[in-house]
């Protein structure tokens, strides 16, 4: 069983026997090669390509994940039935594609029967991989599409027959095979495979070593190492939970060793891993999804993401430092920290795949093309030294790991396709937007608050990328109706879709971290929530001041807004930890919290008030510290 399966408490994979493991390897490698080939040379038409992607995913899920809690090493007859139906569902589209196109809107009975079966396959696959929450949401939305005519008020609609919805979900690119699964088939799987190649080639270990070299000796160094290394890997990984179990198995024991609690160690790792998806260049592939959705160039998304992501990580590092100062925790021993210069000279070449990726993306090549060449460059770079060399065996392992890591995201996007399809068909998204604005009375701050709550609820228990797609469909329209630019609206909902991973009571990233640290799940969730608190403040900052995303602003304006926001997140870190120069009492903590909140909107009297509160605490603590030092000197 893979390491991540043992550490992730939500894992329900069966222990496959030797022969079933070989079958899974063959299928995963075939699927990976298919996607790499089509990324380079072009895909079939959308419905065919997406249905084949889903077919591969479902066959693997029904082999790897058991029907119930039994973990027998062989596939049962019920699993075999699901596998055969998954294959037939895909074959039916490929074999009858021309006929399906010609009779669009006029389905035959066989279309409807197979459509219903495919919907059930989607829900069952999601139940096995993710539990009951997301499939139940899918069921509720599907029932809403059929019986919305029984409702009254804003959410009512005319209602659609089962036959209509079965065809819409199965035989069009608006339902199961809509944009969400298209994103999974075209972008996500390639970047998840790329992340797997980086891990197998030793880049993950290099990131850890690099983080230790940079921050290992500093106060609370191992926790800062976790923040840096998890951020680097999380940008590429695409899933907060997967990143926790990948980097956390190294960083969490390191953090605990110098005196941090198990819960804090897990919270640091969860918050850092979650934030990786806010960090360019890859952002867990969100940058490409956002670019496609908004019709913008990828590079513009990256530029917009840089300052908010840096603010998030500065806040996390600052909080770690304050906690270490409060508890008088030191860094790592000098002999445990690699020399930065020697490390770069010895292993700096492992950065080349990332540079190749960025070069192709910035040069205007498609993300899929860039991902393929980044993977190829990883293999080439790994050959430079024996310890990183990827032979056929490690390449096959990387392909298999990448596809396995993509299964959960792909399944979630298929269910999200049902939800988005219903939303489009019934107008639910615009109805929800209207309801949010109605509840808020058109007030911007209240609209932002209600949208935040909606995004967190929609994102609970769901992988980050599908959560973003769902929230962008459901919640972003409310912000756009108030005149907020589309890019700002999408970044706002994206941040809170990510924050759902560290928001109790269903903080999946924190749960995975607790599985490694041995800490209490709920306390770890609270610590992760605190560590990620800047992520709940920053979106309000860039909505109220889009210059933080670099929109329609001069460099002077951008720097001024960034500086104000920087002071705000540092003040928030101080309020959370009760420390700045020395221990803060409750009045000083309230002043720091007030500074953080008033600095949300740069400019005017709020800035003056915020800076005044911030400086007041610093001056007071500096005076107190100086008096203590004088007394020590006199004695």
Features:
635 residues, 30 helices, 74% helix, globular
Can you give a write-up of this model?
- There is one protein chain.
- With 635 residues, this protein is mainly alpha-helical.
- It has 30 helices and no strands.
- The protein is globular, with a radius of gyration of 25 Å.
Task: Name the helicity range.
Answer: over 70%
Spatial extent as radius of gyration: 25 Å
Q: Mean pLDDT, as a whole number?
A: 87
- Total strands: the figure is 0
- End-to-end CA span: 62 Å
| SSE class | mainly alpha
Number of helices: 30
Strand content: under 5%
Outline type: globular
Biggest sheet details: none
Order of helices and strands: HHHHHHHHHHHHHHHHHHHHHHHHHHHHHH
Which stretches are low in confidence, meaning pLDDT under 50 for 5 or more residues running?
A: 1-10
């Amino acid at each position: 069983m893979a390491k991540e399966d043992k550490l992730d408490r939500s894992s329900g994979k069966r222990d496959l026997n030797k022969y079933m493991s070989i079958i899974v390897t063959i299928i995963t490698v075939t699927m990976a090669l298919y996607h790499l080939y089509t990324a380079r040379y072009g895909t079939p038409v959308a419905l065919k390509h997406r249905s084949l992607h889903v077919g591969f995913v479902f066959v693997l899920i029904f082999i790897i994940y058991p029907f119930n809690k039994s973990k027998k090493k062989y596939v049962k007859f019920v699993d075999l039935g699901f596998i055969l139906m998954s294959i037939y569902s895909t074959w039916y589209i490929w074999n009858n594609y021309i006929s399906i196109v010609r009779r669009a809107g006029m389905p035959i009975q066989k279309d409807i029967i197979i459509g219903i079966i495919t919907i059930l396959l989607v829900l069952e696959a999601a139940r096995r991989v993710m539990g009951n929450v997301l499939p139940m949401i899918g069921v509720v939305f599907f029932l809403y599409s059929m019986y919305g005519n029984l409702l009254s008020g804003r959410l009512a609609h005319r209602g659609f027959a089962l036959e209509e919805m079965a065809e819409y979900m199965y035989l069009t690119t608006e339902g199961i095979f809509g944009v969400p699964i298209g994103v999974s088939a075209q972008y996500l799987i390639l970047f998840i495979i790329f992340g797997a190649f980086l891990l197998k080639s030793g880049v993950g270990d290099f990131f850890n070593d690099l983080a230790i070299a940079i921050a290992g000796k500093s106060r609370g160094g191992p926790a800062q190492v976790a923040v840096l290394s998890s951020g680097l890997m999380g940008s590429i990984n695409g899933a907060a939970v997967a990143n926790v179990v990948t980097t956390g198995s190294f960083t969490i024991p390191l953090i605990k060793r110098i005196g941090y609690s198990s819960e804090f160690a897990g919270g640091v790792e969860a918050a850092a891993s979650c934030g990786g998806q806010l960090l360019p260049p890859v952002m867990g592939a969100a940058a490409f999804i956002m670019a496609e959705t908004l019709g913008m160039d990828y590079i513009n998304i990256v530029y917009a993401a840089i300052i908010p992501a840096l603010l998030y990580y500065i806040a996390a590092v600052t909080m770690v430092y304050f906690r270490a100062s409060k508890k008088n925790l030191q860094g790592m021993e000098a002999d445990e920290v690699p020399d930065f210069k020697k490390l770069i000279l010895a292993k700096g070449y492992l950065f080349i795949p990332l540079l190749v990726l960025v070069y192709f993306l910035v040069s205007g090549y498609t993300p899929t093309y860039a991902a393929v060449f980044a993977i190829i460059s990883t293999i080439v770079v790994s050959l430079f030294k024996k310890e990183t060399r990827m032979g056929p065996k490690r390449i096959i392992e990387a392909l298999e790991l990448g596809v396995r890591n993509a299964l959960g995201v792909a399944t979630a996007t298929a269910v999200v396709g049902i939800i988005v399809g219903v939303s489009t068909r019934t107008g639910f998204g615009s109805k929800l937007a209207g309801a949010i604005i109605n509840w808020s009375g058109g007030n911007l701050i209240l609209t932002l608050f209600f949208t935040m709550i909606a995004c967190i609820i929609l994102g609970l228990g769901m992988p980050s990328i599908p959560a973003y797609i769902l929230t962008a469909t459901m919640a972003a329209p409310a912000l756009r109706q108030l005149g907020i630019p589309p890019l700002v609206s999408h970044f706002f909902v994206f941040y809170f879709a990510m924050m759902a991973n560290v928001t109790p009571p269903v903080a999946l990233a924190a749960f995975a971290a607790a599985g490694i640290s041995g800490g209490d799940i709920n306390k770890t969730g609270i610590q992760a929530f605190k560590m990620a608190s800047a992520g709940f403040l920053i979106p309000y900052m860039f909505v109220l001041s889009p210059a933080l995303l670099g929109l329609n602003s001069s460099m002077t304006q951008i720097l001024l807004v960034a500086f104000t926001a920087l002071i705000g997140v540092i003040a928030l870190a101080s309020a959370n930890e009760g420390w700045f120069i020395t221990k803060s009492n409750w009045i000083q903590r309230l002043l720091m919290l007030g500074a953080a909140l008033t600095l949300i909107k740069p400019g005017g009297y709020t800035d003056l008030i915020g800076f005044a509160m911030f400086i007041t605490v610093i001056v007071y603590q500096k005076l107190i510290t100086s008096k203590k030092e004088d007394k020590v000197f006199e004695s």
